[in-house]
Structures are given as C-alpha cells and as structure tokens.
Amino acid sequence: MLENRSVDVKNMIGNKDFFSREFLIWLWYMSELDQGHIKLDDKTSITVFIEDKLVLEELLGDQEDLFKGGVPSESPEAKYALQSGKIIKECKIKIIKGNASLSEQQFEWIFNFKATGFNISGIKLPSVDVKDYKEKLRERMFFLEELYDYLGALYKKFLNIRLDKPTWDNELLKIKEWIGND
After folding, report:
1. Which pLDDT score is estimated for 36?
2. What is the DSSP letter of 25?
3. Quick one: which of 14, 24, 98, 140 could link to 104 by a disulfide (CB 3.0–4.6 Å)?
C-alpha cells in the first residue's frame, strides 16, 4: 500500500516557498544595516537595496499590501505590515558593485524578486558601452552571470546563518528588534 503513494518532495518544497520569504526579509534587514553594504564569503563587497516596489501578504490569507515609489522599505506602513505578521511576496532589488566615492567603477543590477518559486524577472543589467554586437552580447551575458553569482552568494550567506540554530536564534533576535517585535 505504501508503495502506491507518491510524494513529490521537490513539489512540496516549491509550494511552500522554502526559505525564500525568510531570505527576502533577511535581505531587507541587511539592506538597512551599514547602508546596505554586504561582504560576501569571497570578500567581494556589494550594496543591496529594496527599490521602489514591495509587496507584503498575509501568510494564511488573501490580503496584500503594495508599496510603490520612493523607498517603500523605509515606510512606517511597511514595517507595520511586518510587525503584524505579513511576509514579502515580491520586491524590486538593486545590487551595486563598486564605490563611486572611492573612484571605483560602479555597476548596478535592478530586478524583481518573487518569493513564489524564487523567481527573478525584469532584470536591468549595467549599461555596456561597446559598439560591436558580439562584444556587447558577451558583456551582457557576463553581467547576467555576475548577478546570478551574487544572488547565489547572498543565498548561501543566508543559509549558513539560517541552518545554524544558535547563529539563527541570534540573527532572529536582531531582525525582530529591527522590525519592532522585541
């Protein structure tokens, strides 16, 4: 009888959006610490911001709050939505590499991140000042790969914290304090 039951673990995890919503809350929290500067495990420094779109939803309900324009992640209403137990459904994220104040070339990636399915869309890559079509395509592909590398590194950093119970308990206390649920 048991052999007739089929359990699709990958589908179960996908339906529950395993960790992606916690990842987005953690990323929002990190974006407000140290002006969004995050040092990745390979010592690369990037800056992460929640851009001009933030959608929060009830975990077990149908109500959504959409915050658009300006910097919605800094609005008291968005923090209140977190305090009341809402979670991030979708947001627009900006990643910056380089520091203009240190005379470094700056590169920016902007994209939508949907927690459901861990999907990114609407990717805006850094501009490419190359005339040759093949070279331009090569540069754009390089920037796209770099974005995925940064996302992978951020997620790895999050999982290293999340999957270590004492570390996560400490991080969770800080996040709750940041939200205002201390």
Report:
1. 93
2. H
3. 98
Residue ranges per structural domain of the chain: 9-176
pLDDT of residue 5: 37
Distance, C-alpha 5 to centroid of its chain? 36
Q: Where are the beta strands (DSSP E) in 32-85?
A: 37-39, 45-57, 64-68
The DSSP result for 98-122, as a single string, is S-GGGT---EEEEEEEETGGGEEEE
Distances (CA, A) of 129 to 20, 98, 117, 136, 141: 35, 17, 34, 8, 14
- Could you tell me which residues are beta bridge partners of residue 50? 93
Which portions of the chain are predicted below pLDDT 70? 1-18, 100-103, 181-182
pTM of the model: 0.85
